[in-house]
Amino acid sequence: MLVKELLTIFESINKDITKLNSTVQYIPDNREYATILQNTIFTEIQKFENLKKLILELDVEVAKNYIETPSTIPKKTDYTDPIFFPASV
Questions:
Q1: Which of 52, 57, 58 shows the shortest CA–CA distance to 11?
Q2: Alpha-carbon distance 42 to 49, whole Å?
Q3: Among 48, 56, 63, 65, which residue's Cβ finds the most Cβ atoms within 10 Å?
Q4: What's the rounded Cα separation, in Å, for the pair 22 and 26?
Q5: 87 compared with 25, residue with greater pLDDT
Q6: pLDDT digit string (tens) for 15-65?
Q7: pTM, full prediction
């Protein structure tokens, strides 16, 4: 599985957790089903949190044919360097 696929799954999990948290806020407290429903939602949120933890604990294997060359390393720009700014005409 590619890292970007895991990132997509991770983002989806975060969205689901956010939606579940907002859903809990709309459950009226004065209903007999409120506690059961809230507990169920909190259980699902905990399952998602555990899944996120598992994803973060995964080992990432770098392909053997991947070689870090100067072209694969992002170039950093020093914006404080006077060479960066063209001379005023």
A1: 52
A2: 10
A3: 48
A4: 7
A5: 25
A6: 999 999 999 999 998 999 999 999 999 999 999 999 999 998 988 877 777
A7: 0.65
Instruction: Report phi then psi at 21, rounded to 5.
Output: -65, -40
- Measured distance CA(43)–CA(22) in Å, rounded: 15
> So where are the chain's domains?
3-79
HSE, side-chain direction, 13 A CA sphere, residue 2: 3
Give 45's DSSP letter. Answer: H
Better-scored residue on pLDDT, 88 or 35: 35
11-15 long-range contacts, Cβ below 8 Å, gap at least 24? Answer: 13/48, 13/51, 13/52, 13/55, 14/52
Q: Is the pLDDT of residue 14 over 90?
A: yes
Scanning the structure block, which residue is given the tokens 């991770």? 10
Q: Are 23 and 41 in contact (CB under 8 A)?
A: yes
